[in-house]
Amino acid sequence: MRFAEFVAMIAAIMALNPLAMDIMLPALPHLGHAFKIADGNQLQAVLSVFLLGFGAAQFVIGPLSDRFGRRPILLAGMGVYCVASVLALFAPSFETLLLARLLQGIGTAATRVIVVSIVRDCYSGGRMAGVMSLTMMVFISVPVVAPSFGQALMLLTEWRGIFVVLIVYGLLALIWSAWRLPETLPVAKRRSLAIRDVLFAYHQTISHRQTIGYGIAAGTLQGALFAFVFTSQQVFTEIYHLGHYFPLAFASIAFGIAIAGFFNARVVHRYGMRALSHAALVGFVVVGAVMLLAAVIGFLPLPLFIALSMLMMFAFGLMFSNFTALAMEPQGHIAGTASSLYGTLTTLLGIAIGAFIGQHYDGTLLPFTTGLFACTLIAFAVVLLAEKGRLFTSHKAVS
What we know:
Organism: Tardiphaga alba
Strand content: under 5%
Subcellular location: Cell inner membrane; Cell membrane
Pfam family, one: MFS_1
CATH class: Mainly Alpha
Keywords: Cell inner membrane, Cell membrane, Membrane, Transmembrane, Transmembrane helix, Transport
Distance between the termini: 43 Å
CATH architecture: Up-down Bundle
Oligomer: single chain
Number of strands: 0
Shape: globular
Structural class: mainly alpha
Radius of gyration: 20 Å
Number of helices: 16
CATH topology: Growth Hormone, Chain: A
Number of domains: 1
Family: Belongs to the major facilitator superfamily. Bcr/CmlA family.
């Protein structure tokens, strides 16, 4: 497989998750009307339940892929995603829809864990970070267009039309993967599923200072991102009164991550993962402080909010792919298990934080900006501990 096709394929596989997540944003009011749910905070469950399944399932998918190989587990997960999308399409009740969303999240967990494992199987160091950045650039471009695409679907059809699109895309990705994606884990390198061996691999992962440190930091920052996604429809329609135009504002903000992915892929070999991600983390703290101050004094008009949010997304884009590469770098011998534990940690931590912040939405930006700034400070402190007080270069370089 050529390099360009490899990057395009793994990006398309990973896109199953953000597409299923962000295409739902414009449909939330329609779901509320269809199932007679007036509380906007309750409708956030359509997003959070999906992420719950996504985060929890990663815990077991990694060991399974280390034992049976990447390909069969990936294809099985994508199959579950397609079946769950059919269930959502015909959901007769809100509870059934939430069950389908949970199963969708479980299915996409395989795409997240195994794609990272495949990249780690094939690359390491700066090359791995470069591939992850190219992948993330395509992967993150999906949230830029997904809400607008979802809004267009809402103008043409009802909310069930969204799941028709998800079914078609899932089937196409599954067929492409089954046809072209090779197995990247040789039989000689596969690991036992014995409880003792799995626990030992988990222990190796969580006991490594670099892996666990960047995992906690990434999860905390992802919490701020999830809080933004959970409340975005309410913020743009209730505070800024954008109505059906809110996907355009969301897209302009999410575009910052896509730019960061392209930029990181071009310069990470020159400056290194630590220098770029640590500089972005410092910038994230500054942006969080400015946004909180603006919310406190009551001066956060839409242009300023969009500008600060774009900077926030740009910084997040620089951090997340590099944090993932830094966390996975020492775990090549147990890439599947390490990727699953890392994914579970970052996703579940992000959901807990994001849901906590999102449920405190009160019609103002103060809960979100307070939570955002707190997340930036926690992530900064954790990275500082992981690197033993030295930023921008590895603490191992210190004599």
